[in-house]
Design a protein that fits this description.
It contains 4 helices and 5 strands; from the N terminus they run E-E-E-H-E-H-H-E-H. The protein has 128 residues and is α/β, with parallel strands linked by helices.
């Protein structure tokens, strides 16, 4: 079963412009989610979904996949958050499980990802 960590990172944030690539401890914000996912034994692919070429290039430089750019209409302030996830899954039919990792949740650790999968297994749950 292929599990992808999906990291949504649009370029057009109004509150903090370009927040997903702002530096935090000398690394772009998106770096922290990518690295946490790459260290997990439960994740097969780390995929960033974005409409922004600069974000895509930064994500790739930290070993995340950016196999496609999402359409601009899925990257607006009023775009429902689930739409980029659905779009990404349509682009990756081989992926059977997805873990959504928001780049703004920077205190997440690899052990938290492992715990999610452990709980799912323990309770034989389809989602967590």
């Amino acid at each position: 079963m292929i599990c992808a960590a999906l990291i949504p990172a649009r370029g057009g944030s109004k509150g903090i412009p370009r927040k997903n690539i702002k530096l935090l401890n000398s690394k772009p914000l998106i770096y922290w989610s990518i690295q946490t996912a790459l260290k997990s034994n439960c994740i097969d692919r780390v995929v960033v979904t974005t409409e922004d070429e600069e974000i895509a290039n930064i994500a790739r430089s930290y070993s995340a996949e950016v196999p496609f750019l999402r359409p601009e209409e899925l990257s607006k302030d009023d775009s429902p958050g689930i739409d980029p996830v659905i779009h990404a899954l349509e682009q990756m039919p081989e992926v059977q499980e997805v873990l959504l990792l928001q780049p703004t949740s920077l205190f997440r650790q690899t052990k938290h990802i492992e715990e999610i999968f452990s709980l799912r297994t323990k309770w034989n749950a389809d989602s967590a």
